[in-house]
Amino acid sequence: MDNLAFDALAGPLFMLLGFVGLGFIAARRLAVDPRPIATLLIYLIAPFTFFRALMNGGPTPGYVLLTLILFALSSAIALTVRALTRHRFGAQEGALLAFSSGTGNTGYFGLPVALIVLPPAGVTQYLFCILGITLYEFTLGFYLSARGQFSIRQSLSKIVRLPLVYAFIAALVLAQLDITLPEPLMASLDVFPATYTLLGMMIIGMTLSHVTLAAWDTRLILACTALRYGVWPLATLATVLVLQTFFTLSPDLAMAILLLGVVPMAANVVVVAMELGIQPQKGALAVLVTTLLAPLIIPLYLTAMLQAAGLA
Question: Torsion over CA of 257, 262, 266 and 267, rounded to 10 degrees?
Fold first, then answer.
C-alpha cells in the first residue's frame, strides 16, 4: 500500500487546500460572490457530474445496492444525531449538525484521493458509494437542513426542485433501456468532474473570507469533528466487516468504503447552508478545521482500518 504513504497523498491533499486558498483570494480581491456558485453546484454541476459517472459506470444491481447501503448508512447517522442533539443546539445549528453528520467531502475531496489509491474498477465502485451519500445530501439531508429555517411543506417543495434526484433516475432508466448516449455528448460532460472539485473547494475559501470571530462555535466544531473523524471511520469499518461476513468483498471495494469514512466534512455543508441561509460561516469554519486535519489523518486512519479489516 505504498500509495497510502503520506508522501504519495500529500501533493493532491495540499492541492485541494490550495483551491480553498484560491477561493479566499477570489472573494477578497475580486469580490466574487459565492452564492450564485453554490446555486450552480446544486442545480447544474453536481447533477451533470453524477449523471456522467452513472452513464460511464453502467449501473448494475450490485452497484445500485452499494448506493442504497450508503444512503441508508448516511440517513441512519443523520437521524440519530438529529434525535440526540436537537434540544442541545439552536434550530439552525442543530440542522447544520444533523445534515453534516450524514455526509462527508466524498466528491470534491475524496474523489481525487480515490483516483490515487484505487484502480479504475475501484473508482467506479467508489462513485456508486458516494452517489448514495450525495442522494442523502439532496433528499433527507436537504430536508433536515431546511427544517432549521422552513416549514415541512416548504422543505419538501425545495427537495422536489433538486435536479440531482432526476439525474439519478434518468441514468437508471437509460441503463435499463440499454440506451447509450452519443460519444460527443458524453465527451462534452468530461469538464464537469474537475469543475465540481474546483468550485466545491473554492466555495469554502470564499465563505471563509467573510467569516468573523463571532462565527466561531467551539461546541459545534468539536461535535462536527468528532462525528467526522470518530463516528464515520467506525461506521465504515463496521460496514466492511458486516459485508465481509455475507459476501466476498474485494480489497478495492473495501478500500472505497473505508475511504468514505476518513474524508473531511462535506463542502456541501457550506453550499447547502448558503442556499438555505443557515449559518454558512459556522459551517465553513467547521469544514476548514476538518479539512486541515485531513492530510495527517487520512494516511494513518486508512492504514489502521485496513489492518483491522484484515486487508493489510
Answer: -120
